Amino acid sequence: RKADQGDAEAQHILGGHHYRGQDVPLDYAEAARLYRLAADQGDADAQHQLAVYRELGRGMPRDIGEADRYFRLAAEQGHAMSQFHLGRLFLGAAATGRVLPAAPGEAARFVAQAAQQT
User: Fold this and answer.
1) CA 55-57-61 angle, 5° bins
2) Residue 55 half-sphere exposure toward CB, CA atoms < 13 A
3) pTM, entire model
4) Residues ≥6 apart with Cβ < 8 Å to 58
5) What contacts 81, CB < 8 A, 6 or more positions away?
6) Residue range 38-80, pLDDT digits in tens
7) CA distance 29 to 15
């Protein structure tokens, strides 16, 4: 399989299959592992998915710092949803309360970047 050979796109796609239990067993930990492999090769969609997993603690321990890092990596590539999520995190609007130091200026910047793409 391409995913086993290090193909980032295939790793991202297979991660999604494990996330949904589509043609493979539902397995959040395996999805997270595959997303990380693709994310570490620069795949913005995988970076976004991994950030969501880190924020929620799905398939791996919750780690807001890592979520922030992967959202930023994807946002720097123009990933609109990651830009939006960064804005949300900087506003302290995550489901569990303030998770990053409040930075309204940063929040506005990321949300504006996301809005320009939609």
Assistant:
1) 115
2) 25
3) 0.79
4) 28, 32, 52
5) 48, 74, 114
6) 999 999 999 999 999 998 899 899 888 899 899 989 999 999 8
7) 9
The rounded distance, in Å, linking the Cα atoms of 18 and 30 is: 7
Which amino acid is located at 56 in the chain?
Answer: L
Residue type, 88: R
Give the C-alpha separation, 33 to 20, whole Å.
15
Render the burial of 36-75: b for 16+ CB within 10 Å, e for the rest. Answer: bbbbeeebbbbbbbbbbbbbeeebbeeebebbbebbbbbb
Identity of the amino acid at 102: A
Give the separation between CA 86 and CA 36, rounded to whole angstroms: 19
- The pLDDT > 90 percentage for the chain reads 55
